């Protein structure tokens, strides 16, 4: 029973990490159709932001709290730059955006290597995240708990923005029917940029959070990007709820298999399970328009 | 015969002369060996041209098939080196010095060749059947294929005792009875690789001109429309995907004796995307583009990484961005434009945003339909 | 061969698009389907060609179309066109027609290159008047020519049921006239169903007219009969005027 | 006309294919012996040597520093008059963290650049990839990193520790000093950890230590929730850590987060050196143990000089570590061999290798001419609050290299 509990907790916290990294993608991939492989490097940029903030802000107690919004802005600005310089010309070719953004990701990685050096950087965790609290007899690390809370907050914030703000209404209208949105006076260009800013900003936030768990190095993003996309695909396109379920589901699955078998085999099994899952429910994948098939 | 019909063959002849006559005459053994390696990538690239350029399937996980061919060949070579009943060196080192049952059949060279040709076809066939019949396409297909390549690499790394793990398989002494240290045999390998590359391009030329080739383009540009012409597009895509997989496998199989090694790094996500770079550069939908592009990218990678170590990432990144953004038809597009017979490809040129976004950004019929109904 | 539709219902997430439609579509007649926007005309065609899931029955040659995949329906001889003409823009007119003609070819012959224009294809190009444009990419055709090409694609397939979704929308008066004549020429021996808005066109060419409103058939008869139908007038005046 | 043309091409290419098969008949068959011939040019007043390190990719983190210390050694040697009066000319290649690239670049350095010796490699996979290249071309490789042993090549000199100079002393330390009765093994999923753990398990069986668990995570994995849960549940006396690179960071953060401490359950790591400590975080590592043959804190004149020079070249914040020191030492050892042989020729150098010594920063090392490893002193260290590593236990004298563990009767491969 204890072992099972541990697996559930580990699975949930792994799921929260997946959710954090996939949340921004749900927006940019799910709602805009852009397959942004540089999302991983935006996460990396967020992590380096946390590192830089920790150098500037003397108090480790505060630096994380400052780094979170800073990471959001840095990630968002990178996203804006990418959208404005490259992606805006490519909305008609969504599949091609994958390779272009992969190229951008490669460049960003090498930039990070040249600027910060190849060795990993340490971002000190604040003292108030030291240690763990016992939940049902299981010592839950505070950092993990923090990430679960942060993921929850990000989802809530995103939902609130989409539901209750003018921007959110514009985003939903644009996603629903671009031409119609334009005719009722929504600047779809501006909406695109805003969507991309938020989606990429969330990657930055994820990056800051990840410094609590792992290392901050140029390869940070690559280790997460494939999984992040799988979460979005499994969750179904543009469905926030689906993404949450998928992230937690994959996290739990991975934890269970990692416990029963080894980490490597667990990853392979989870990949295969996802392929099999899409056989059963390729929902959101069947697309047919009836008047014209262009 | 018109100039336009002739030009691919002229290009092919030029490539043949360059590969079979010029290169062996001017290159050192070492450089020729590198060119042989690029030829292996180019063989896989020819298949990618078919699947991606003509079929519109972004195959992000060809490393899987490259790896199947490469590992099948490598396993055979290790067993052949060990001699009848022998145990490959690394198994004695990391394992319990017994050859696992699934290795045994590969002692036979003929069986290895069959595996190299048939196994990728089977895997691609099964996978394709599952994926295309369920109408999984576009980005979904790309991400799935990428995930499979990633899973394959992780699996290989985890099985140290039977696959050599991250080390991969290397240290091959012979290739079907010929000693690999001998420069004469290495040249022979080069000629085999270049020959197979040229033959596979010819086969592609035939396919592109066949009704299948026309149908494939039709499926790429209007998959659903083809369905209403009485053809299941899944079968057409499946055929192209299987051919691409087999070509990748052949490239992988030749890669092993030429490079002298195969490791999980050669089959994973990064390697798989690397295979696409040449195809994009050369021109994905053109006949010679993928092969020539792959050769160019291979050469550029080697020379740039020699001249400026660590800079290859910048160049590869820039290549992807600039080519795909500005020259989606690759170098072939430049040539065509100069000759003034540019093909107006909706696929490459792009269509108004709303249309394509919906076609590529699938929603279920049940979701899309009420909007349609409401808009009526 | 008659296509019989029995109590067809199509529902999307609770929205009933087709609400119990029964129709008998007989060969040799030009059958028109009219109705205001949202009446369910296109959805009806979608349901018959496997594009939308429907319940009920659509019997043709002993098979129920509702249970078949789209490409099988086509192979059975039921073809359709789309409102926005959907042709392979990068391929030539000839290639477009040749691909459509592929239904009748053995699979292995796919591996062979095409030599010139097959007889049936050449014949159809003549019928739809596109012979001159045989080698032009379909993408450069005018809207009307694309519609003709789509009809041609059904002709090379020898479809015995043709479901045409607004084939004359956006055509000039002259093109409409030609299209109408074309439809007349091909209708003997086949079932031709045309979705149309333009009442003048309907009046000139329709043998039978079915009026759809809110997913239901509200009237059926000749063009003249339909014009006199009180319910139809109400629907049209209420919606349009 | 069209068909005729293409069928002609087909005919031409089949003729070609036949011709190719014909040319093949001239080549050597398997079983014939190799004839490597050197193209090294020693006629001028310089001699070329090759550095082959990953300057890009995942291993750049570690290998860049090796490259720096190799470069420093080369500069020192050149400033001091070179080797046999010839200045060293460096040809540097990027291994890109991929074994295939290592094999390719090694071939290039040997065949195209005609270098007298190559220095570099880090991962087991890069060494295994290069091994046949150096043997096939009869060239020289100096490999500077501790590794899993069970190997010796005529053409490779191993200047890092083999298992009996690092892993076995570490186990001796745990058994004798920490009095452990049980141990938990955590490693990355590749050759070094698996081989190391194979040795550890046999050692444990022979010494009455219980192995309570053995966990592997994929290389680069940063998800250690499950692993640390298992470690904690098992409650061993110590953890033996063979994780590589980034995984260490995630592991130690999780370890600390779940309330495990160095005093209650110490972790002994064999892949964490001074340069990795800041990345993992001093706070996460303080008090944990490492096993190496060199630490920056070693108090000797040779080391002071080495550390000072390295800081002068790479900034005051730069630290020195075991692999860097072993790389630095390898260049001097090669110099010693060449001078003893009075020749740059590979066979002469190999013949002269036995007994060559060098007063390295780690202490005096001596080359074993038989297995091409070097005798080294094992040092167990403990991470201090400044992120440096203090020696807490030493084998006191150099341990003779025994890559195949022939002198340990509990070992059977």
TrEMBL record, chain A:
Keywords for the protein's UniProt record, in alphabetical order: Amino-acid transport, Cell membrane, Membrane, Transmembrane, Transmembrane helix, Transport
Pfam families attached to this UniProt entry: BPD_transp_2
Cleaved signal peptide residues: none
Major localization class: membrane
Membrane topology: Multi-pass membrane protein
GO annotation, cellular component aspect: plasma membrane
InterPro entries: ABC_transp_permease (IPR001851), ABC_UrtB_bac (IPR017779), BCAA_transport_permease (IPR052157)
Gene Ontology process terms (BP): amino acid transport
Keyword match Transmembrane helix: yes
Protein name: Urea ABC transporter permease subunit UrtB
Family, per entry: Belongs to the binding-protein-dependent transport system permease family. LivHM subfamily.
Compartment list: Cell membrane
GO MF entry, a single one: transmembrane transporter activity
NCBIfam families per the UniProt record, alphabetical: urea_trans_UrtB (TIGR03409)
TM annotation in the entry: 6-30, 42-58, 64-82, 142-162, 194-213, 225-253, 260-280
UniProtKB/TrEMBL annotation, chain C:
Domain ABC transporter: 3-239
Residue spans crossing the bilayer: none
CDD domains: ABC_Mj1267_LivG_branched
Annotated SMART domains: AAA (SM00382)
A cellular component term, taken from the record's GO annotations: plasma membrane
Any GO molecular function: ATP hydrolysis activity
UniProt keyword terms in alphabetical order: ATP-binding, Nucleotide-binding, Transport
Pfam families xrefs: ABC_tran (PF00005), BCA_ABC_TP_C (PF12399)
Protein name per the record: Urea ABC transporter ATP-binding protein UrtD
Organism name: Nocardioides turkmenicus
